[in-house]
TrEMBL record, chain A:
GO biological process annotation, one example: maturation of SSU-rRNA
Compartments it resides in: Nucleus, Nucleolus
Lineage: Eukaryota, Metazoa, Chordata, Craniata, Vertebrata
Residue ranges annotated for the Nucleolar protein 11 C-terminal domain, each copy included: 412-497, 499-628
UniProtKB keywords: Activator, Nucleus, rRNA processing, Transcription, Transcription regulation
Alphabetized GO MF terms: RNA binding
InterPro entries in alphabetical order: NOL11, Nol11_C, NOL11_N, WD40_repeat_dom_sf
Name of the protein: Nucleolar protein 11
Automatic annotation (TrEMBL), chain B:
GO molecular function: RNA binding
SUPFAM superfamilies: WD40 repeat-like
InterPro entries tied to this protein: UTP4, WD40/YVTN_repeat-like_dom_sf, WD40_repeat_dom_sf, WD40_rpt
Gene name of the encoded protein: UTP4
UniProt superkingdom: Eukaryota
Gene Ontology CC: 90S preribosome; small-subunit processome; t-UTP complex
BP terms from Gene Ontology: maturation of SSU-rRNA from tricistronic rRNA transcript (SSU-rRNA, 5.8S rRNA, LSU-rRNA)
Entry-linked Pfam families: WD40
Name of the protein this chain belongs to: Cirhin
Species: Oncorhynchus tshawytscha
Length: 628, 686
């Protein structure tokens, strides 16, 4: 799960003359994790203490001069670096008050960006594609700078990545609608050029974001049609390759775009599984494209959304658990949290590494998730229920609806089922909520069984089934939905206890507050049940058949812990819980003893294992030794 | 330097016996150690704990306790006898039946005038120590129940006696029991079992400290007979107690293998006057019963069932780190139990009760360094020769041709003729040995097997001529010094001309065997030689001492060689000097006269005299480094000491005539495996 927390305004923004221009050039970190260096689009650089929303210092160039690249912090010399009027590099320290009196050097070619990252020397990227270390450039500012790019090729975006003694400068260019990625490795210097696959519409990406994961450079880019693609370049290797390589891509996410295409939007990867997108509509809200959303790319689910007041400039920066978004007349800081996706934890908490590896797989490798991706990619194809004429689900009686659903499901045309099933389910749920007499359990169950539904597609479904005490449907949902919110899980718990509830994915932090809503009797009953299940399984742990849907021991124990956490004081006070708790305690004690004994056996067996490795020397051997 | 084929021998089932008793003589700094098999060992604590003398055991002898009176050593045992030892002839001087049944303990008063023994029949017997013997004086009041432990009050007027369930205090002049201290039994199931007071000490202030089978250390007021304090230290027995000379510290040994120290200190800084006995430290260096214990000036010495002697230094008594401040474990004897017939490829193993003769195996083909070669023939045990009589074997010898074998006990010498043709071996005892050849401290054959040398009393050597038909006494070589000490090392030259002997006075005599007279005396060095050998071509005598110093002495020129002077001038490397086991064998490589081969328990070393000596800055253990260098770089890194630690727990290293090495290892683990199960088993993973 991921969440966006209450944000705050870091600073106001000055409107520029040209409304399409962003009022901010860039936000960079300096040595302090709570500092942000904000460069506006004209003349000033301001250093903020983020948590205090307070400026610590501000530097401005003279009237008539213009900052042409965001200021960066040189982590090695503790100095700030900025470029004004494309060619003048300025370097100053925290204590310098006047930027004009600071060191400056004029170089021979126009600078695109200066990049700096902790652990690496700052590098200067020229508009024509050449790259220099800042130090060596400043030691000979008038040195000639070569052209790397062709005449009409312009840089659209650049970044640098420093990791494990490797230093990369990545930049993308555009030339007659063709986009290219350049990967410049430093020390030793090699340059590799990749051609991005062309989008059908011919549009260019709106935004790029790059990260280093598992020794691979991951490039994530967003197109106006809402497609977020990922391309992977190995951090090592391919050095010998000449010429331009085609860069394979894989679709990571289809962001619903609503009406029209995206304008000012931007996507940034938060971790292996989460992407923050700004300047998009919320799928379940109105069509305005002024939302900041976090999507889970593994499950294609929306995890959190937040409306940003005012026009979004399509800029988002992500530093240390905070998103910086410029919108309207403000720069907002929104803390976020991404937890490992709950299905992963439900599958067993150790699966994480597998999923991470999955993200780094090159394009075309099929994984368990790929089918969903395909379905997503078809979402913009306007098919589905709109073709079904007439539409009984809007007004018709139950049996007609049933027929319609059967017809839809039996079509078996998986290509467009995804969207139509979701829409149909939403409609049915909405109608059921509106008309108390209307409820189509069979149809809903069929829809759920297509496995194209998830909770975020049709949030009302599970609650509806609870309302109607349709436990069969509830079970189905619990079984098949990967993304049931903790509050709903608890609601289910209150109504009935099942194997299924225990297996729903959850996150401790989110579940705990909702668990507190349970009353004592429910808790005791639940605990009794958990104990029963645990005893049952611990007795026949080996006979447990994998096909049977039963919770694992770990899941049961996790739930016991959570319940006790949430209700411990209450349980201690409740007289009827006493027996249960002492039972539980003695049971746990015996288990702990058992496991500690097992631990001992393990280590001694390990010793045996080690001993076997040592050379077995017999009573007599003839060997050859050499002395030097 | 080169490759060597190594016979790695692990089939010598050497098994030391458990330590039963010890007594430390602070005046001479000698520790006497009594083992279960009745043997007594003398360690010189002033000379790197060198095992100076060994008095071989005897089947009927048992040692429960040892006691020094001045320089005289007494033991008493369950055979009911008191024995005084002759430390010059390494045999009991006399044994005296005490007529009190088995004797559990023996102790002398601080004046050295009387011995007290505790007997099974409940008597404490006093013996007067006379010039040449001891004489029974009287019994103290006879008690019901055996007397297990005794301790004299330093004044000599009272004796505390540990018994079953109680401690008695006797007034010595009257012989009356004046106090009866009742010792509690253990708890639970052991309530029904009598508590054995295994050990008591009687301090100057009349405090009595006892250790018993219920795991308690108890402090008593000897004036009033009241219990002051009980420390429960173990679930099993507290077996041994020893008090420091200044009576400020007491150490106890338990069945768990721990040694626990109690100190007489003030519990708080404010009340320095109110001192009490406080448990302070626990040492765990043993796996089994700690049966014998001595707290000496700077260390705690302990021994027990696990057969090793442990010297645990008290670090607060040292200002700087040195060999003396390091923990010492003495596991192997400091003398040879393995003899190798270099020409015949035979090995002789000496056990207290028997000799074993083995033929080494053979391999064919060659291999790279690190390889094990396939065996063409397995090693073969040719002979298992049991000794006659109840005296244990004290020394043995095998001629290099493999044709002669000799061994000696305290009472007799036996010589055998061996004949091996291919797979058959025949052994015949040589009858009618010269009468004069009654026993020997050391035996060795000349390299041509024509003579047998036997180290006899007062550092003399008997020369016996051997031939097919007879064996004839030739001569007795006597040292000029008149030393009465026994010879513990003897070696002769390959050319048959020279014989060198070393005795416990650190004297080394070189005799001319052809002229049958003393040739020279090597200048006496302060540390006892632990190994020596005569070079086959130069006839230089190489000696290694207990303090790890190496000397080379030219027998012909009667002076130290230039190399030896250079070595002494430059000094040996600290890492060499800090080794904690003595070199027990020196041999040479006839094919390469520059090489001296020697070994201790933990390493095997070839000294190449043609190479520069290492100084303190040189990397001393450099074989790994040299291995990693290229052939061009290597020469600049070479130094004279080539040390190989591949082989551990070494009992013997010798070089056969075919240039292959024989390394006899006795892994300590194998010894441990044969010990009885300890009372406290280490649990899995605890």
């Amino acid at each position: 799960m991921a969440a966006l927390y209450e944000g705050f305004t870091l600073c106001g923004l000055v409107q520029t003359q040209n409304a399409s221009d962003s009022p901010i050039q860039g936000i960079e970190l300096d040595g302090d994790s709570d500092h942000a260096v904000v460069t506006d689009s004209t003349r000033s650089v301001t250093l903020y203490k983020v948590s205090d929303q307070k400026p610590l210092g501000s530097w401005t160039v003279k009237q008539g001069q213009l900052l042409t690249c965001p200021a960066v912090f040189n982590f090695q010399t503790k100095e700030y670096v900025v470029v004004s009027d494309n060619k003048v590099i300025r370097v100053w320290k925290d204590e310098d008050l006047n930027l004009d009196k600071a060191f400056k050097a004029t170089v021979t070619a126009d600078v695109w960006r200066v990049h700096s990252a902790p652990g690496g020397e700052p590098v200067v990227l020229f508009q024509r594609g050449a790259v220099r270390f800042l130090d060596s450039l400043l030691s000979a500012p008038q040195q000639p700078v070569e052209d790397v790019l062709s005449e009409e090729e312009v840089i659209r975006w650049s970044t640098n990545i420093v990791a494990e003694e490797q230093h990369f400068v990545l930049f993308t260019t555009e030339q007659k609608g063709e986009c290219c990625l350049y990967v410049q490795r430093l020390n030793p210097n090699t340059l590799q050029k990749y051609r991005l696959e062309r989008e059908d519409s011919g549009a260019s990406p709106l935004s790029f974001s790059a990260s280093l994961q598992d020794k691979h450079l991951n490039l994530l880019y967003l197109y106006p049609n809402g497609c977020v693609y990922q391309s992977v370049v190995a951090a090592r290797g391919y050095v010998g390759l000449e010429g331009v390589q085609a860069l394979p891509r894989s679709l990571r996410l289809m962001v619903p775009v609503g009406e029209g295409e995206l304008g000012a939007a931007s996507a940034v990867a938060l971790d292996e599984a989460h992407v923050a997108v700004v300047g998009v509509p919320h799928p379940s809200a109105r069509t305005g494209k002024d939302f900041l959303c976090i999507w889970n790319t593994n499950f294609q689910t929306l995890q959190a959304g937040k409306e940003m007041a005012g026009r979004i400039h399509g800029q988002v920066w992500c530093y240390l658990g905070k998103l910086f978004v410029s919108h309207g007349k403000a720069l907002s800081v929104i803390p976020y949290e991404c937890q490992k996706s709950s299905l992963a934890s439900a599958l067993g908490k150790l699966r994480h590494t597998g999923l991470a590896g999955n993200a780094a797989l090159p394009h075309g490798t099929s994984t368990g998730r790929i089918s969903i991706k395909c379905n997503c990619s078809q979402r913009n194809v306007k098919l589905g229920v709109n073709c079904v004429q007439p539409q009984p689900h809007q007004t018709g009686p139950v049996d007609e609806v049933q027929r319609e659903v059967e017809a839809l499901v039996s079509r078996g045309d998986a290509q467009d089922l995804q969207l139509s099933v979701g829409q149909l389910a939403c409609h049915l749920v909405a109608r059921s909520q509106a008309e108390t007499a209307f409820y189509t359990p069979v149809a809903l169950a069929q829809l759920v069984q297509t496995q194209f539904l998830c909770h975020s597609v049709c949030p009302g479904l599970l609650l509806l089934s609870l309302e109607h005490k349709d436990y069969f449907l509830c079970q189905l949902c619990l079984q098949l939905f990967p993304d049931i919110p903790e509050v709903v899980t608890c609601a289910c718990l209150k109504t009935f206890i099942s194997n299924e509830v225990l297996q729903t994915p959850y996150s401790d932090n989110f579940l705990l507050p909702h668990l507190k809503d349970l009353d004592t009797q429910q808790v005791i009953l639940f605990l009794q049940y958990l104990q029963f299940v645990y005893l049952k399984y611990s007795q026949d742990v080996y006979t447990q058949t994998p096909g049977l849907r039963s919770p694992t021991m770990t899941q049961i124990i996790d739930w016991v812990c959570l319940l006790l956490d949430a209700h411990f004081t209450v349980l201690v006070m409740a007289p009827d819980a006493k027996g249960l708790l002492s039972n539980l305690q003695s049971f746990v004690k015996s288990q702990v003893k058992l496991f500690s004994e097992l631990g001992k056996i393990e280590s001694s067996l390990q010793e045996l294992h080690k001993m076997k490795l040592s050379k077995d020397i017999s009573q007599y051997s003839i060997e050859v030794i050499e002395l030097f | 330097m080169g490759e060597f084929k190594v016979h790695r021998v692990r089939f010598f089932d050497y098994m030391p016996t458990a330590i039963r008793a010890m007594a430390f003589n602070a005046h001479t700094e000698r520790l006497a150690l009594g083992r279960m098999d009745g043997s007594v060992e003398i360690f010189n604590f002033a000379d790197r704990y060198f095992q100076e003398k060994v008095i071989p055991g005897k089947d009927s002898r048992s040692i429960e306790a040892l006691c020094w009176v001045g320089g005289r050593l007494f033991s008493a045992g369950l055979n009911g006898e008191i024995t005084e030892y002759d430390l010059e002839t390494l045999r009991p001087k006399y044994s005296l039946e005490a007529y009190g049944g088995p004797i559990w303990t023996i102790t002398s008063n601080s004046q050295g005038a009387h011995l007290a023994i505790g007997c099974e029949d409940g008597t404490v017997k006093l013996f007067e120590v006379l010039e040449e013997s001891i004489q029974f004086e009287r019994n103290l009041d006879r008690q019901k129940g055996r007397i297990i432990s005794l301790s004299w009050h330093p004044s000599g007027t009272q004796i505390a006696a540990g018994m079953m369930d109680m401690i008695r205090v006797f007034d010595v002049p009257t012989g009356r029991a004046v106090q009866r201290l009742l010792v509690d039994r253990g708890f639970g199931g052991s309530k029904s079992r009598e508590t054995v007071v295994w050990s008591v000490v009687f301090l100057s202030d009349c405090t009595i400290i006892s250790g018993d089978s219920a795991g308690k250390v108890q402090v008593w007021d000897g004036h009033t007979g009241t219990l002051v304090k009980t420390h429960l230290v173990t679930k099993w027995d507290v077996l041994a107690l020893s008090v420091s000379k200044d009576e400020s510290s007491v150490v106890v040994g338990t069945s768990e293998g721990t040694v626990i120290q109690f100190q007489f200190i003030a519990p708080t800084l404010q009340q320095q006057q109110d001192k009490e006995w406080v448990r302070t430290r626990t040492f765990k260096n043993h796996t089994h019963d700690v049966r014998a214990l001595a707290e000496i000036e700077t260390a705690i010495v302990s021994g027990g069932m696990d057969t090793q002697l442990v010297v645990r230094p008290l670090l607060e008594k040292f200002d700087e780190r040195s060999h003396a401040s390091a923990l010492r474990k003495i596991q192997f004897p400091h003398r040879n139990l393995v003899f190798c017939a270099k020409k015949a490829g035979l090995l002789l193993f000496q056990f207290p009760g028997q000799l074993e003769l083995w033929r080494l195996g053979e391999s064919d083909g060659h291999g790279k360094p690190g390889d094990s070669l396939p065996l063409k023939r397995k090693p073969e045990k040719l002979l298992h020769l049991k000794r006659k009589g109840e005296d244990h074997i004290c020394c043995s010898a095998l001629s290099s041709c493999g044709g002669w074998l000799a061994y000696s006990t305290m009472s007799s010498v036996r010589l055998y003729r061996l004949q091996t043709d291919n797979n058959d071996i025949s052994i015949s005892k040589v009858p009618k040995l010269p009468k004069i050849l009654r026993s020997a401290h050391q035996l060795c054959f000349s390299s041509d097997s024509s003579k047998l040398f036997a180290a006899s009393s007062q550092s003399s050597v008997l020369v016996i001529a051997l031939s097919q038909s007879e064996c004839k006494y030739v001569h007795t070589l006597k040292p000029k010094s008149g030393s009465r000490q026994p010879i513990h090392l003897m070696t002769n030259s390959v050319d048959g001309k020279w014989l060198a002997t070393a005795n416990s006075d650190c004297e080394i005599h070189v005799y001319n065997v052809q002229k049958l007279k003393l040739h020279c005396i090597v200048p006496v060095y302060g540390s006892c030689p632990s190994a020596m050998g005569i070079h086959p071509t130069t006839n230089n005598l190489t000696m290694v001492h207990a303090d790890q110093q190496i000397f080379e002495y030219s027998i012909v020129e009667k002076q130290y060689t230039d190399w030896s002077r250079k070595l002494q001038k430059q000094g040996l490397h600290n890492l060499w000097l800090d080794r904690d086991t003595p070199v027990t064998h020196v041999t040479f490589n006839p094919k390469n006269p520059e090489q001296i081969l020697l070994h201790d328990m933990h390493m095997f070393c070839i000294i190449d005299q043609s190479l520069p000596l290492p100084d303190q800055k040189t990397q001393f253990y450099n074989q790994m480094t040299l291995r990693s260098l290229s052939e061009q770089e290597r020469p600049s890194h070479l130094h004279a000491f080539k040390i190989c630690k591949t082989f551990q727990d070494l009992l013997s290293v010798s070089l056969l005539d075919d240039q292959s090495l024989v390394m006899v290892e006795r892994p300590l683990l194998a010894i441990t495996c044969q010990l009885p199960a300890p009372v406290r088993q280490k649990k899995f993973a605890t």
